[in-house]
Specification:
heterodimer; A: about 200 residues; alpha/beta; Rossmann fold; 4-stranded mixed beta sheet; 5 helices; about 25% helix; B: about 475 residues; LUD_dom (chain A)
């Protein structure tokens, strides 16, 4: 018998030995939506607070995204990497990804991307490899990640965040910069992923 | 079976750990820190109990239809260009992974921290086949370089302090800066430098999975450092070993677990990074993806009507951090890759209780683990059940000293005259504990008790004597007259 058939057979026998347990209904009384509308001032304020708590930096675009990106990149030496679908004019001098190898990606100090959605309560930004975000490796190897989040992409809760995403897209959830707590549970920001996360908040 | 049982019983292993004051200091500091962080972020959620109830119901529903969910997961992963393999046990899983790595022609792999691959002893199996497996999680790296074993599900190097980690790095990490200090930031930096070029050149990665979504075929890895993202994204081939209990029916179900898991495990609102992928995506990430679905005792656990709840565990490790036994004995004493309260339940169930007979007793049954468990696994009740199974399996033959003592105690306590006589006799114990107020050792067979703990000196007066004096018939009559 194949391992597949044997394991599936064992599961059926086990469930029968345990008295054919029923799949009981799942109580979903937990908060599925927030108390504030997506993109509202309260939700943006909460996101800002959570991001700062995670040692991310927040730059308000105040209607001018390219200027805010320039502020975010001020300390970066050399050109920034950008996904091919990033809006024109956001990063003058940015180098579009043409399928660089991991070692070539390591040559860039910074990357600038958009985002798919964000959750305020947890300070989480979701990237789903859309044209303005590019493949997953882009936001991983360079040490500075500048991420532009539009106000209308910000929801309050985790359920609202997941509902906005398509599960079959390769997705990365980012909450602050890379961090570890493995040494005496002392939190250290910056291990293998980008050590600096700068979020440009684009609110009208 | 892999790494699910130790060479010593829990009491023997714990005795050594209890004598290690450095270990107890490190553990005490770590568990206290994480308990505080967890309590603070859990208190932020007004709907925490509702989330726990949903998590519990989701898990038991999933187990009730586990075969269907796994078949659906397999279908979806295959439809998206992945290859699904099934493994009955540790040996079979190791053989599959070894063959898959060999087929790539590589002899080095990078690994994401994974309990399933630890459970099956994958690194040893790969080493026998001439394949080097590089752990990339900082704690796993510390354990690997130290030639050590993990002692905690989430932070395997929790038993080491910064000075010990510095020593290990200086001794084992080629090219490390000799000026390295014990500052956590510097130690993390050293790990970054050591692993960076390995990530950039890796062709094959091996991971576990925190969740596998049946309806979409999506796998998820929850992590903090970015080492997971490196392994899941940069290599050409990805091999994921997932316990069959990790499947969740729908993408929506993740809204429960992605809230429960980070707050329970690291005490964060959300862990820094979570990666989700479905099969193969052209132009993004590994172009060859293999999923190995692992049984290794899980279906045997599922067969127990009550004990199957141990499979609900999402490996957050909250129960370890609140357990008074774990905090003192440490993770190595459990002898399994799954230490702490959940390990004391899960390991004997995966191996069969007679193979891990001392673990169900490694608990004070105080119940803190149940309160901390995000999916409401009733660990104390499961431990009592396993103890009963162990006792039942050992009926007949010569009773153990403990069983004899309990039988004697029950005979004495069943009759009030015998009990009163025993109390009077126990006052002799006052002679033994005169100077310290404690009795440090008793003659055999009573030394089975005093060998691991002091006995308080019996009081000058028993409760029954006090009651007779203060509230007894004579006293009551006096009161009635006054």
């Amino acid at each position: 018998m194949s391992a597949r058939d044997e394991v599936l057979g064992r599961i059926r026998a086990a469930n029968s030995a345990a008295g054919h347990p029923l799949a009981r209904p799942v109580p979903r009384e937990y908060a599925r939506t927030g108390t504030h509308a997506p993109g509202s001032a309260a939700v943006l304020e909460l996101l800002r607070d959570r991001l700062v708590d995670y040692r991310a930096t927040v730059v308000d675009a105040a209607g001018d995204v390219p200027a805010a990106i320039a502020v975010a990149l001020a300390g970066v030496d050399g050109p920034a990497l950008v996904p091919a679908g990033l809006p024109d004019g956001w990063v003058p001098g940015g180098v579009a990804d043409t399928g660089f190898s991991p070692a070539e990606l390591d040559g860039f100090a910074a990357v600038v991307t958009g985002a798919a959605a964000a959750c305020a309560v947890t300070g989480t930004i979701a990237l789903d490899a859309g044209p303005d975000q590019g493949r997953r490796a882009l936001t991983l190897v360079p040490d500075v990640h500048v991420c532009v989040v539009r106000a209308d992409q910000v929801v309050e809760t985790v359920p609202e965040l997941l509902a906005r995403l398509d599960p079959v897209r390769p997705t990365t959830f980012v909450s602050g910069p890379s961090a570890t707590s493995d040494i005496e549970l002392h939190r250290v920001e910056g291990v293998h992923g980008p050590r600096t996360l700068i979020v440009v908040l684009d609110a009208p | 079976m892999g790494h699910l049982r130790g060479e010593q019983s829990f009491p023997d292993a714990a005795r050594g750990a209890l004598a290690d004051s450095q270990l107890r200091r490190n553990l005490g500091h770590a568990t206290t820190t994480i308990r505080g962080k967890r309590a603070a972020v859990v208190a932020e959620c007004d709907d925490w109990e509702e989330l726990r109830l949903a998590g519990e119901a989701l898990k038991s529903s999933t187990m009730a239809r586990l075969d269907q969910h796994l078949v659906e997961l397999e279908e979806r992963v295959t439809a998206r260009g992945g290859v699904v393999h099934w493994a009955r046990d540790a040996h079979e899983a190791n053989a599959i992974v070894t063959r898959l790595v060999r087929e790539t022609g590589e002899t080095e792999v990078v690994k994401v921290k994974s309990m399933a691959t630890q459970e099956i002893g994958l690194n040893d199996a790969l080493a026998e086949a001439g394949i080097t497996a590089q752990e990339t999680d900082l704690a796993e790296l510390i354990v690997q370089l130290g030639g050590d074993l993990g002692s905690h599900i989430l932070v395997p190097a929790i038993h080491r302090n910064r000075a010990e980690i510095r020593e290990i790095f200086l001794r084992e990490m080629p090219g490390v800066d000799p000026e390295l200090t014990a500052e956590p930031r510097r130690l993390a930096e050293a790990a970054r430098l050591y692993l960076r070029e390995r990530f950039l050149r890796a062709k094959v990665a091996i991971s576990g999975a925190n969740f596998g979504v049946a309806e979409s075929g999506t796998l998820l890895v929850v992590e903090s450092e970015g080492n997971g993202r490196m392994c899941l994204t940069l290599p050409e081939t990805l091999i994921t070993v997932m316990g069959i209990e990790k499947v969740v029916p729908t993408w929506q179900d993740l809204e429960v677990f992605l809230q429960l898991l980070p707050r329970s495990s690291t005490g964060e609102r959300m862990n820094p990074y979570t990666s989700a992928w479905t099969g193969v995506t052209p132009g993004d990430g590994p172009q060859a993806f293999h999923l190995v679905l692992l049984d290794n005792g899980r279906t045997a656990t599922l067969a127990d009507e009550v004990g199957r709840a141990a499979l609900h565990c999402i490996k957050c490790s909250a129960c370890l951090n609140v357990c008074p036994v774990y905090e003192r004995a440490g993770g190595h004493a459990y002898g399994s890759v799954y230490p702490g309260p959940i390990g004391a339940v899960l390991s004997p169930q995966l191996t069969g209780v007679e193979d891990n007979a001392s673990l169900p007793y490694a608990s004070s049954l105080c119940g803190a683990c149940f309160d901390a468990c995000p999916v409401r696994i009733d660990i104390p009740s499961l431990l009592v059940r396993l103890r009963a199974q162990h006792v039942d399996a050992n009926r007949g033959g010569v009773p153990s000293p403990e069983a004899a003592a309990m039988a004697a105690a029950s005979w004495v306590m069943a009759d009030h005259r015998r009990f009163a006589a025993a109390e009077t006799a126990s006052r002799l114990g006052r002679l033994l504990g005169r100077s310290t107020g404690r009795i440090g050792s008793l003659p055999p067979p009573l030394d089975a008790w005093t060998g691991s703990r002091d006995l308080p000196r019996p009081p000058a007066e028993s409760f029954r004597q006090w009651w007779a004096r203060e509230r007894g018939q004579g006293r009551a009559r006096e009161r009635g007259q006054s």
